[in-house]
Amino acid sequence: MTQDDLASAMGVEQTTIARWELGTRPLNTNRLTRLAEVLGVEMAELMETSASAAPAAPPTGFAAPASTFIQPPMIADLPRDLPVMGTALGADLDVSATDSGVANAERLELSLVDVIEYVKRPQGLRGNAASYALYVQGYSMSPRLEQGDLIYVDTRRPPSMGDDVVVQLCAEEGDDQAVITAMVKRLVRRTSQYVELEQFNPALRFTIPVNKVHAVHRVVRLAELLGI
Q1: pLDDT single digits (tens) 94-119
Q2: DSSP string, the chain
Q3: Structural contact between residues 214 and 169, judged by C-beta atoms closer than 8 angstroms
Q4: What is the pTM of this model?
Q5: Is residue 31 scored above 60 in pLDDT?
Q6: Better-predicted residue by pLDDT, 13 or 74
Q7: How confident is the model at residue 65, as a pLDDT?
């Protein structure tokens, strides 16, 4: 049976069959059951063979990738060493809205010393000792980010326009330096004079002078967390 024959019988593309043979795409239980029917073997026999077989050689006519496929680490193998910093919903901050003068923007109280727990460090943050995570407080970024969502923050790569960011604001004189004001927003623009941000609920665009901004850290996207 050729790959095309098997693909037709399984109702998938030929490239999917090729990935199954190379071991780069796993089969779920439903697929395994159907494969056993098509091949005329028992399910137990197929699973035993799959578990014990050595990696298959690339099938005839299939162009093998230039580099050896590297299986990403399983979640259980990832180190649990990424700190989740403590956050609390703070009082709204008076900001300069881009179209209506002064407005109120939701902000957080971010503790730089209060680690509430440690979570698995995703592949995309490996080697970044300064990265951290936090739980979203409030609803200003809903529906994109909801109350209680865990977000991962990259301190190395500068954010780009359109990225979700954590903006750390400078502490006022006399404030506890261990707890600072922060905002989880979307970055609209960054100039030498101000940082322009956006929130969704209620919809608001506003600016903060750069002398009030301590740091702008990027919220990492899913694909980057997976290391792809």
Answers
A1: 898 988 788 889 989 888 788 999 99
A2: --HHHHHHHHTS-HHHHHHHHHTSS---HHHHHHHHHHHT--HHHHHHHHHHPPPPPPPTT----SS---PPPPGGGS-S-EEEEEEEE---EEEEETTTEEEEE--EEEEEEEEEEEEPPPGGGTT-TT-EEEE--SSTTTTTS-TT-EEEEESSSPP-TT-EEEEEEPPPTTS-TTEEEEEEEEEEEE-SSEEEEEEETTEEEEEEEGGGEEEEEEEPPHHHHTT-
A3: yes
A4: 0.64
A5: yes
A6: 13
A7: 55
Ranking 31-40, 58-67, 73-82, 83-92 by mean pLDDT, the lowest is 58-67
Using the predicted structure, report yes or no on whether residue 73 has a pLDDT greater than 60: no
Q: What is the CA radius of gyration of the chain?
A: 25
Query: How many angstroms separate the CA atoms of 143 and 176, rounded?
Result: 32
Dihedral of alpha carbons 189, 190, 194, 200, sign: positive
Distance of alpha carbon 86 from alpha carbon 66, whole angstroms: 45
Q: Phi-psi region for residue 23, left (φ > 0), alpha (ψ -120 to 50) or beta?
A: left
Nearest to 89 by CA among 183, 175, 154: 183
What's the burial of 99, exposed, middle or buried (CB within 10 Å: 0-12/13-18/19+)?
A: exposed
